[in-house]
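Help! Submission page says 'invalid entity' but I think these are all valid:
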Amino acid sequence: MEQVEELKGRVKSLIVRQLKLEIDPATIKDDAPLFGDDPSGLGLDSIDALELVLGIEKEFGIKVQDEEVGVKAFASVDALCEFVRSKAA
Amino acid sequence: MTPVPEPLPHAYPFRFVERTVEKRGPAEGRVRALVTGNGRRTEAGESLPPLTLVEVVAQAALLLEGGDPGIGRTGFLAGVSDFEFHREAGSGDLLDVDVRIAGVLGPIVRFEGTVTDGEGRRVCSGAVTVKKGSPA
């Protein structure tokens, strides 16, 4: 199993690359909300969510089946890593 | 060929696709588009602008998607990505638009489309993201 910190780095790079964000992946906090208006988060929207789903599926070879699961799993980098690890287990 | 059962919400001069010629699955298949010199986009024999070709793909996707029986075909273009343009399409050209679903998340659907001309040459390809329903 991939090390946690390595996986977090990979996920953060994926977020930046897939959404064409002009930020350093390292500046994304592990527990910051990815969606919504929270100023500590990235402020992503539902269109971004689909982009992320496609990126996750391609990068990790896993399928995000359900919108509810997708929203829950994509709450933060921590949640996303937990989702990827559970699917890979 | 199967006639279009109901019109898209688009109308002249902003409707660019004619009809479904092949349905391969939910929202996947081939749609035909005729570039007419009667359209504002191609007056004076000009080629379709790239942005109009993007709209051609989006309208083809919406036509294949079929919409909700209760509200018809409603949706709006929410994103455009990975478009490549290979050759021009001008008045008189008959275009085939092949569409497949790349991803779905709730009401948001990403379609990948390829436009070819009557001789099978690639005109453009790319992806459009459509949000079904009306803009809130």
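Support: the input was valid. A stray whitespace character was the problem, and the output above is from the cleaned input. The first helix of chain B runs from residue 50 to 65.
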